[in-house]
Design goal:
Oligomer: heterodimer
Low-confidence stretches of chain A: none
Low-confidence stretches of chain B: 65-69
Protein name (chain B): Spore germination protein KC
Structural class of chain B: alpha/beta
Strand content of chain A: under 5%
GO biological process, one term (chain B): spore germination
Mean pLDDT of chain B: 88
Strand content of chain B: 25-35%
Keywords (chain B): Germination, Lipoprotein, Membrane, Palmitate, Signal
Radius of gyration of chain A: 21 Å
Shape of chain B: globular
Order of helices and strands of chain A: HHHHHHHHHEEHHH
Mean pLDDT of chain A: 89
Strand order of the largest sheet of chain A: 1-2
Number of helices of chain B: 14
Helix content of chain B: 25-40%
Main location (chain B): membrane
InterPro entries (chain B): GerAC_N (IPR057336), Spore_GerAC-like (IPR008844), Spore_GerAC-like_C (IPR046953), Spore_GerAC_C_sf (IPR038501)
Number of strands of chain A: 2
CATH class of chain A: Mainly Alpha
Number of helices of chain A: 12
CATH topology of chain A: Hydantoin permease
């Protein structure tokens, strides 16, 4: 564990940028059709609960990072083994998000540039930032947070004023009843993006005011969920369900439709800038978590030494995990959210919390006697 | 240590210089052929013929100052043939010294013949998929003409013909309202919707097409060949099936809630077209419901405007008279809308989106009838129209002048 201090505001900013990350890029929860925004909000409720589980674990061991309390709860060998799997999971997810970024740029702007080059350019920056430590990433976040919201609010105003939003596209609500929404919420949005907030349990021990972690974390996740739901509702309002689900990047199509006063148009660059920023933070945080766990279980004093080799692994993985964008997406939906996410994001934390609860109850009852 | 630092420093500088220049796939401005409009026809062999209107940069700029470069036409046209749109576009490179650049293409012209033969959605797919092409491009149908001819005619005032077409459509939509400008994105949205059919404006050519291609066409007060908006093309399942124009077309634009302004002439005291009502704004609401298994559509129109012309003696200072005039106007608007609905029902093509309205209010029943909507249910839809027209002002004069001799 490095010595770092993260303020509550920085935590808030990081969670928000992280949650928006690649979720705002893709047609999130579009399987729920015009009720996608409802599916996102229902996923959010589950996501808040998952955050609370991680927070409770943190309360039991406020001084320890997750790999350390895993070792304490499950025993040295099993705990280390589990933590090792988390390294792989975090690196794999970082590679996936990095791939999202590369695919977005290649599809839309740099058609002739090789994927490796685009990914390498971002990964080098991420490696540099993470090697400087989590404090640096957090401070960068503070800096960019303002510009992201400036872009988002400007974009929102322009979309509203160009009169593109047709709320009729969001009707009829609950056409097929509540079931499809619940299905999408529990199989997709619960894990991606809300359940992913588990990586922040690696950052909790650095926070100066521990009492307010719960309040700030829940607020940040809630706000990001509302932002995502609004974004998806606007996408569907502007594009309609069919176009939104056929768009690889619905938000891009929405922004491209803006035409205000003959000259405020072709604002694609808004989308590009905010995507690059958000994805930078998402990959950085995942990558940081992987590096930090590795440093703990392999007892490496300077985690920054790990960043270059591990970063190269993430970079190569991002290029090789799939041969096409369609395969990449399919892998994420069919394999990721079905088998990997429930295990790492829901089952394990719940199990750990259960064990922690039993162990600590025993201890406290002993103390009373 | 110092040496290593210096080495690293120079490496970083060289590295950034290489990376930041961003020249991976650079496109010099002088290597780009900016496509302003794309016209698509089909030839006798059944292959697509694409006509690209390419801007001649030197001949567009600086014309007003009398500077050089106004000799040639502002655009030049190149054609390509192919079995698909992408193929024909790539094949034109054999005739062109530059790389085609579609990011500024804002007009797509499709020939009437092609639109009648096959669904236009097959043409729109490559345009929608391409990252360069903008989905805000406007679609028009070459009414009774070849799409290539529409693209070839040189125009006055607005030098680039594509801009002339788009602006003409936009302004006629705003001031007269028998045509609508439909973007590619809107067209695709409508094509995929089971509860709405597509309506797109047509464009026509008056005069001699061959003269229109020459620069002389722009050097006379009355061009020998002129582009003008035609009727409204009605589609069904992506194919053009009918044209509507005049008051029927305006009634359709009313129902689509796209009418901005117009001039509506009404009869007053047995004189036809005696009063002209200048519409300023209107709002049309379409509500659908099911009653005893039959769809009923209620249409509410709220119109606001002024008196633009009064050719009969009338006391316009009297609010009661204005109320009477309003009643007549309401009748006229109602007549136009009824005509539009009857025509659409005859064509069995729901261009107004009544089906979509029904889908919103009765999703369960809609599911059962969606497949048969256009052919069985839509022609039988009962409509109920309520028009509220308001005359707000009468211009600078109250009563019309009278010649007392």
């Amino acid at each position: 564990m490095e010595k770092a201090k993260i303020s509550l505001y920085q935590l808030f900013v990081l969670i928000l940028l992280f949650e928006l990350g690649s979720a705002i890029l893709v047609p999130l929860a579009i399987d729920a059709k015009q009720d996608a925004w409802l599916a996102i909000l229902s996923g959010l409720i589950g996501g808040l609960f998952l955050f609370w589980i991680n927070y409770r674990l943190f309360l039991y061991y406020p001084e320890l990072a997750p790999p350390e309390y895993m070792q304490k709860l499950l025993g040295k060998i099993a705990g280390t083994f589990l933590a090792f799997w988390y390294i792989i999971f975090f690196m794999y997810t970082a590679a996936r998000v990095l791939r999202d970024f590369g695919e977005m740029l290649l599809t839309f702007a740099y058609l002739e540039t090789p994927l490796f080059i685009v990914n390498a350019l971002l990964m080098l920056v991420i490696i540099y930032a993470v090697s400087k430590g989590i404090e640096v990433v957090a401070r960068t976040g503070e800096l960019f947070f303002v510009s992201i919201y400036f872009l988002a609010i400007t974009g929102f105003i322009l979309i509203v004023f160009s009169g593109l939003i047709d709320l009729n596209n969001l009707k009829p609500m609950l056409e097929e009843g509540i079931f499809p929404i619940a299905k999408v919420a529990f199989t997709q949005t619960l894990y991606f993006p809300f359940g992913e907030s588990i990586v922040f349990s690696m950052i909790f021990p650095y926070i100066t005011k521990r009492k307010s972690v719960k309040k700030v974390g829940l607020f940040a996740i809630g706000l990001s969920g509302i932002n995502l739901a609004i974004t998806m509702a606007i996408n569907i309002g502007v594009l309609g369900v069919d176009l939104a689900s056929r768009s690889q990047f619905p938000l891009l199509s929405t922004i491209q439709s803006i035409q205000v006063a003959e000259f405020l148009e072709r604002l694609d660059v808004f989308f590009m800038i905010s995507m690059v920023i958000c994805i930078f933070f998402k990959v950085s945080i995942y990558f940081y978590a992987a590096v930090a766990i590795a440093a703990v279980i392999f007892k490496i004093k300077k985690p920054s030494k790990l960043t270059y080799p591990m970063g190269m692994v993430v970079l190569f993985m991002s290029v090789t995990i799939a041969s096409s964008y369609a395969e990449h997406l399919k892998e994420g939906l069919e394999f990721g959210t079905r088998y990997v996410h429930p295990f790492f994001l829901v089952i394990i934390p719940m199990l750990l919390l259960g064990i922690a609860f039993i162990k600590n109850r025993k201890r406290s009852s002993h103390q009373k006697i | 240590m110092n040496k290593i630092n210096r080495l690293m420093c120079s490496l970083v500088i060289i590295g950034t210089a290489l990376l930041l220049s961003g020249c991976w796939s650079k496109k010099e401005l002088t290597d780009l052929a900016i496509v302003a409009a794309l016209g698509i026809d089909k030839n006798e062999e059944g292959r697509y013929v694409g006509t690209l209107q390419i801007i001649n940069p030197g001949n567009v700029a600086g014309g007003m100052q009398g500077g050089g470069g106004t000799q040639g036409p502002p655009v030049s046209v190149i054609t390509g043939t192919g079995d698909s749109i992408v193929e024909l576009s790539r094949r034109t490179s054999r005739k062109l010294s530059r790389r085609l650049y579609y990011a500024h293409t804002n007009l797509v012209v499709i020939s009437e013949e092609l639109a009648k033969e096959e669904s236009i959605s097959s043409i729109l797919d490559p345009l929608e998929r391409d990252a360069e092409f903008r989905s805000t491009a406007i679609i028009v149908i070459a009414q009774g003409e070849k799409a290539s001819d529409i693209v070839k005619i040189l125009t006055l005032i607005d030098k680039i013909p594509a801009n002339k077409v788009i602006k003409t459509l936009k302004f006629t939509e705003r001031t007269w309202g028998e045509n609508i400008s439909v973007s590619m994105q809107e067209a695709i949205k409508t094509l995929v919707s089971p509860g709405k059919e597509l309506a797109v404006s047509g464009f026509r050519i008056s005069g001699d097409v061959d003269k229109g291609k020459k620069m002389e066409n722009t050097q006379q007060t009355e061009p020998s060949s002129l582009l003008y908006t035609g009727s409204l093309a009605i589609f069904k399942k992506g194919k053009l099936i009918a044209w509507i124009d005049g008051e029927t077309a305006r009634g359709s634009v009313f129902l689509l809630d796209k009418l901005n302004a117009s001039a509506i002439a009404v009869k007053w005291e047995r004189k036809d077209e005696a009063m002209v009502y200048e519409l300023i704004r209107q709002k049309t609401k379409v509500m659908a419901k099911m009653e005893k298994g039959k769809p009923i559509v209620s249409i509410k129109v709220q119109a606001e405007g002024n008196i633009g012309e009064a050719r009969v003696p009338i006391d316009l200072t009297n609010p009661d008279v204005l109320l009477k005039v309003e009643k007549v106007i309401e009748k006229e608007i109602k007549k136009e809308i009824t005509m539009a609905v009857k025509q659409a029902q005859k064509n069995r093509s729901d261009i107004f989106g009544f089906g979509e309205a029904l889908h919103r209010t009765n999703p369960k029943e809609w599911k059962k009838i969606a497949a048969k909507w256009n052919d069985i249910y839509f022609p039988e839809v009962k409509i109920d129209i309520v028009v509220d027209a308001f005359i707000r002002r009468t211009g600078l004069r109250n009563n019309p002048h009278q010649v007392n001799k």
